[in-house]
C-alpha cells in the first residue's frame, strides 16, 4: 500500500496550476473534490481503522504551523492550490463536518471527499479509505441537504456553477501492477472506465456540470516502480496510465456530446510529465529527477 509518489505529487501540482490558469477569481461559488492522496485534505484522519494516514511529520512541515494536517504532502496539495487559483478557501474534509456544524452552510461552500488510497474501483483499498463510490454516495447526501435547505432550483443552480474536481486512478493502476493473475491492460482499463462512467453519470444527475479531471501521471516513474527496472521507469505502468487517460478523456468527450449542459477540462498528466522528464534527461538538472523521497499514497 505504501507507494513512492513525492515527485509525482509535486509535478501533478505544477501541471494543474498551469492548467487552471484560465479560470477567473470569484466566478465559481464552490469546489467539490473527489479523489485520492493527491487531493486528500484530512479525511483519512477521521477513519479510525485506516492505516493510510499522513498524520505525522514530515507531512505538513511546510504548511501553516508546520503540523501534519492529514495531507500526504509537506505543504499545500493540489486541492489547496486549485482552490487558491479559484479564489476559494480549500474545501474542508467531509468527515470533519459533524452534527454541530451548520451543514447547509458547510456544504454550500464546497466539500472534499478525497481520501488517500481511493481508486476508481470500489475494491481498491476498501476498508482503508472512502472509496470512490462512497465519495459519490456522500455527495448525494450533500445534494439532498442543499435541496432541502434551498429548494431544488436554487440547489441545482448553485451546483451547476461549482467545480467538480477529480484526481483518481493511480491506486487502481498501482494495484494492478502488483497482481499476479490479471486481465489484459485494455480489459482492465475498460473496467476502470465503465466504473468511472457509472459514478460520473450519478454526479451529473445530482447536478455536476463543470468537471475538472486530472488524469494519472507516469506512475511507472514513481520510485517504487523504478526499482523494477534497473535502467528506467516501469513501462507497463506508464502504458496503463496512458491508456487510462485516453479512456477517461473519451468518456468525458462522450458525456459532453450526450449532455448539452456539461463542460469539462481534462489534463493528461502522463503526457505532460513525461515530456518534462525528457527535458530533464537532456539537461544537467539531474538532481530534479525522481529518485530519493518516499511517501504513502
Ligand atoms: C474540523 O472542524 C473543527 C470544528 O469545526 C475546526 O475547528 C477544524 O479547523 C476543522 N479541521 C479541518 C481540517 O477542516
Ligand atoms: C444554517 O445556515 C443557513 C445558511 O447560512 C441559514 O439560512 C440557516 O438558518 C442556518 N441554520 C441554523 C440552524 O443555524
Ligand atoms: C526499462 O526501461 C527501458 C528504458 O526506458 C525500457 O525500454 C524498458 O521497456 C523498461 N522495462 C520495463 C520492464 O519496464
Ligand atoms: C450517451 O447516450 C447513449 C444513449 O442514451 C448511452 O447509451 C451512452 O451510454 C451515453 N454515454 C455516455 C458516456 O454518457
Ligand atoms: C459550457 O461552456 C459554454 C462555452 O464556454 C458556455 O456557454 C456554457 O454556459 C457552459 N455550460 C456550463 C453548464 O458550464
Describe this structure in words.
It is globular, with a radius of gyration of 18 Å. It has a four-stranded parallel sheet, sandwiched between helices. 45% of the residues are buried. By secondary structure, the chain is α/β, with parallel strands linked by helices. Helix 7 runs parallel beside helix 9. Helices cover 43% and strands 8% of the residues. It has one domain: Rossmann fold (3-Layer(aba) Sandwich), CATH 3.40.50. The structure holds 2-acetamido-2-deoxy-beta-D-glucopyranose (NAG) (5 copies). The site of one 2-acetamido-2-deoxy-beta-D-glucopyranose has 5 residues, from loops.
Q: How would you sum up this structure in a few lines?
A:
The protein is of the alpha/beta class. 43% of the residues lie in helices and 8% in strands. The radius of gyration is 18 Å and the shape is globular.
Shape: globular
- By CATH, the topology is Rossmann fold
The domain tally reads 1
Uncertain runs: 1-8, 290-297
Which compounds are bound in this model? 2-acetamido-2-deoxy-beta-D-glucopyranose
Q: Which architecture would the CATH scheme give at its second level?
A: 3-Layer(aba) Sandwich
Q: What proportion of the residues is helical, as a percent range? A: 40-55%
Beta content comes to 5-15%
- List the strand order in the largest sheet: 2-3-4-5
Q: Sheet bearing the most strands, described?
A: 4 strands, parallel
Calculate the mean pLDDT score and round it: 87
Number of helices in the DSSP assignment? 10
What's the Cα radius of gyration?
18 Å
Just give the CATH class.
Alpha Beta
Distance between the termini: 7 Å
> Care to count the β-strands?
6
GO molecular function: hydrolase activity, acting on ester bonds
Family: Belongs to the 'GDSL' lipolytic enzyme family.
Protein name: GDSL esterase/lipase At5g55050-like
Transmembrane segments: 7-24
Amino acid at each position: 500500500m505504501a507507494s513512492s509518489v513525492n515527485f509525482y505529487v509535486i509535478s501533478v501540482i505544477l501541471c494543474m496550476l498551469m492548467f487552471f490558469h484560465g479560470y477567473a477569481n470569484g466566478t465559481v461559488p464552490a469546489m467539490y473534490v473527489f479523489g485520492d492522496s493527491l487531493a486528500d485534505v484530512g479525511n483519512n484522519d477521521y477513519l479510525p481503522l485506516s492505516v493510510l494516514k499522513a498524520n505525522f511529520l514530515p507531512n505538513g512541515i511546510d504548511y501553516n504551523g508546520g503540523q501534519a494536517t492529514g495531507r500526504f504532502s509537506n505543504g499545500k496539495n493540489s486541492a489547496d492550490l486549485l482552490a487558491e487559483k479559484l479564489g476559494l478557501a480549500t474545501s474542508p474534509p467531509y468527515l470533519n463536518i459533524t452534527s454541530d456544524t451548520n451543514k447547509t452552510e458547510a456544504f454550500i461552500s464546497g466539500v472534499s471527499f478525497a481520501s488517500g488510497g481511493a481508486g476508481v474501483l470500489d475494491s481498491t483499498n476498501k476498508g482503508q479509505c472512502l472509496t470512490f463510490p462512497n465519495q459519490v454516495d456522500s455527495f448525494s447526501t450533500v445534494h439532498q441537504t442543499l435541496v432541502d435547505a434551498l429548494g431544488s432550483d436554487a440547489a441545482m443552480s448553485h451546483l451547476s456553477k461549482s467545480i467538480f474536481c477529480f484526481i483518481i486512478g493511480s491506486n487502481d493502476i498501482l494495484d494492478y501492477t502488483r497482481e499476479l493473475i490479471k486481465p489484459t491492460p485494455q480489459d482492465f482499463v475498460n473496467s476502470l472506465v465503465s466504473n468511472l462512467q457509472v459514478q460520473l453519470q450519478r454526479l451529473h444527475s445530482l447536478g455536476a456540470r463543470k468537471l475538472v479531471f486530472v488524469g494519472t501521471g507516469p506512475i511507472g516513474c514513481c520510485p517504487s516502480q523504478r526499482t523494477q527496472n534497473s535502467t528506467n521507469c516501469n513501462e507497463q505502468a506508464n502504458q496503463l496510465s496512458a491508456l487510462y487517460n485516453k479512456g477517461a478523456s473519451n468518456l468525458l468527450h462522450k458525456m459532453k456530446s450526450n449532455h448539452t449542459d456539461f463542460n469539462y477540462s481534462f489534463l493528461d498528466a502522463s503526457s505532460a510529465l513525461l515530456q518534462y522528464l525528457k527535458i530533464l534527461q537532456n539537461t544537467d538538472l539531474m538532481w530534479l529527477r525522481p529518485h530519493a523521497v518516499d511517501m504513502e499514497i
